[in-house]
Amino acid sequence: MKIGITFGTFDVFHYGHLRILERSKELCDKLIVGVSSDELNFSKKGKFPIYNYEERSKIIGSLKVVDEVFKEENLELKAEYIKQFNASVLIMGDDWEGKFDWVKEHCNVDVIYLPRTPSISTTAIIEKIRN
Ligand code: C2G
């Protein structure tokens, strides 16, 4: 069985999030999703997410294309998570292009960057509502 792993904050869940998870599942039999902790999001983006970890991980875990969810505490732990879940492919959006190539040899996995869905983001949604 081919196990795939992907990561993200998935704050204010939207169509771009759904599409990356659907496309990731097409590349594996079992899809594991590392959802960023609130603290990790703060360290990545300088702000806490609108939906907290419990809410975000429950939404992601309820999707039929997602088989398992866990908390991503640190960006540097990719290799440990890959080994822990026995994943053979790491899938990321292309905003992370090249950033995780180092795990290819480190863990003997494929690393695939999928194009982001255009014209949608959590930040754009928040701006639209605000205006
Ligand atoms: N995404 C997408 N299309 C969009 C918006 C997001 O394909 N229009 C993808 C991103 O490329 C990412 C996933 O959805 O693969 C989750 O996006 P974010 O929540 O913004 O993830 P991020 O905070 O960048 O966390 O270890 C890596 C990080 O945890 C990724």
How would you describe what is shown here?
This protein is of the alpha/beta class. The chain has one domain (3-130): HUPs (Rossmann fold). It has helices at 15-25, 38-45, 53-61, 78-85, 102-107, 122-130; strands at residues 3-8, 30-36, 68-72, 89-93, 110-114. The protein has a 5-stranded parallel sheet, with helices on both faces. Helix 5 (102-107) links the parallel strand 4 (89-93) and strand 5 (110-114). The protein starts with a strand and ends with a helix. [cytidine-5'-phosphate] glycerylphosphoric acid ester binds at residues 7-11, 16-17, 20, 36, 44, 72, 75, 92-93, 95, 116-117, 120-121.
What strand line-up does the widest sheet have?
3-2-1-4-5
Task: Return the string of H and E elements.
Answer: EHEHHEHEHEH
User: What are the low-pLDDT stretches, counting only 5+ consecutive residues below 50?
Assistant: none
Going by CATH, the homologous superfamily would be HUPs
The CATH topology comes to Rossmann fold
The dominant shape is: globular
Strand content: 15-25%
Broad CATH class? Alpha Beta
- Radius of gyration based on Cα positions: 14 Å
Q: What is the mean predicted local confidence, pLDDT?
A: 96
Through-space gap between termini: 47 Å
